[in-house]
Amino acid sequence: MATVASRVASVARTWRSTYRPNDYANLLFLIPATFFFVGWQIYPIIRVFVLSFTDYKYLERNPPNFVGLQNYINALNDPLFHVGMLRAFAFTIAFVPLTILIPLVLAVLIDRVTSPWLSSFYRIVLLIPAVIPGPLVFVLWKWLFDFQIGPINTFLVEWLGLFTRQTAPQWLGGTPLSLPAVIIMEVWWGLGYHTMFFLAGLAAVPKDLSEQARIDGANEWQLFWRVIVPRLLPILSILVVLRFGTAMSVIDEYLIFGGFQRTSPTYTWTVYMYDLAFRIGDWLQGYAAAIGWLGAAVMMVFVIGMLYVFRSRD
Amino acid sequence: MAVTVQHHHRRRFPAGLIAKHAVINLGVVIILLPLIWVLLMSVKSLPESYTTNFWPRQFDFSHYGFVLTRIQTLPQNMFNSIFVTLATVAITTFCAILGGYALVHVRLPGRMLLIWLLIASLFFPTRLLSLISIYEIQRQLGLLNTVVGLIFPYVTLNLAVSILIMRGIFEQLPHELVEASRIDGCGPWRTLFLVLLPLLLNGIVVVSMVNFVGVWGEYLLAVTLTNDQATRTLPVVLASAHSGMGQWAYPRIAAVYVIAVTPGIIIFALFQRLYFKGLTEGAIKL
Description:
- The complex is a heterodimer of chains A (about 325) and B (about 290).
- Chain A has about 325 residues and is an all-alpha fold.
- Chain A has one domain (about 70-310): MetI-like fold.
- In chain A, about 70% of the residues lie in helices and about 0% in strands.
- The longest helix of chain A is centred in the N-terminal third of the chain and has 33 residues, at about 80-110.
- Chain B has 2 domains: about 1-65, no CATH class; about 70-280, MetI-like (MetI-like fold, Orthogonal Bundle), CATH 1.10.3720.
- Chain B has helices spanning about 1-10, 15-40, 60-70, 75-105, 110-125, 125-140, 145-155, 160-170, 175-185, 190-195, 200-215, 220-225, 235-240, 250-280.
- Classes of the chains: A mainly alpha (about 325), B mainly alpha (about 290).
- The interface between A and B is large, with 101 and 96 residues.
């Protein structure tokens, strides 16, 4: 055994030095990816960073002037930026727990379905929303929320009788309900995907662990909190951080749902940035760039903080 | 002791079972209802589409023919979407295979740094921030308002995640295989294309799906970088088609919608086994 092990180890060592003399030639493998990354991700981000220190206006003929931190100072004193950040936080705080807890419960339930046929049926249905591209989901839900012909109001009025046609909720058009509307839609969209994610994690929880806990007299509730949740903690925490990031920088659904109406709860810092960069005046891209970087910086503070709190302690 | 537990367990079994399936099925219904609603809308007659009936009294399948032939730019828009999606999926998958391979099976300077950069980019709002200057880049390259131009930023949308998924797949492949291939005299390139490529099917399916979903419905870049009806893609057309009048009467929008959503669901249904397998092996995609 020992010789086999040492032989494997020596093979592994040889492998490590396999292509050694050509190390830099191996960078060739990364050239296609690097081409796209540099051209359409790294360069634009750096360029946006540089622009954020200028008064660059896209449609203006005159060359931009360097203005130092002026854009950042303006942004910090800009009520629209403040309210935009607060709206993004409001959405994130309501959305992230829902989109994680509901799928978690669903996953725990589906994990206990014993019939293999039913179990795979549930899994397939759940993943359907995940293969519908986001913007198509938003278009559909904008329609579902429609005041007159939307089936959601039809359901509330004609089936549940909670409202009349006149008093039915106005989900769209920048009313306070626009935010819950976006949240409901986003939870629907992520329902299947996140459930699948937890199911993959649950598959790694040994079945006899739960059995043992039951025999020891744990009820289902204790089982969930003491056995399942700790096992899923790594997946849970990474999902929280990633969803926080995507939720704070949401823009497509806000554009589709609320447009550029400044009083709408969907007019967040991201929409404001877009509005400045491509619509307002001579396209104030210097200022938009500062708003973008400032928003991203605030996000990063929270992301790094969360990663620090969730760091694995072993 | 074990017997009593068993007994206790068995007695409360049915109620728990019913509750469990009730909750799961509620989830299933909530997921399916919106999709069934839009499917039924696409086969309602025009007058009925303005009523609140859920189930159509009379089925009218003419809207599919109408949208495919009578809405002027729609075939062009569909072609744009198909073209951009196929090109992006092919290019990204190719880049991801090479990248994943480089990060696992060949010696590479700065490998860990690259992996950390890729992971870090998943947490940063790259797509949003880069948008401002991508517009300028596309204009300088003459790619503004062209369909081909969309491919370049589209490739980067899911490239980091695709490389990380392929890296996960490559890590499952035994190093002995690479070693054996090397002893047989294959260089790193031939090892990749002759020995490893057939073993990557799961990963290729997952990466293609991720990119398909990301690009087929992409809205923000498309709406910003194109402005002629003829260069637009399906999602942009659909998002702006919310009038409910004339050629965009509700059942017609619904028909376009069904046409737009179906390919993804069919592809997923065909490849779901490979997809799930690849998803658990490549594990990182979030």
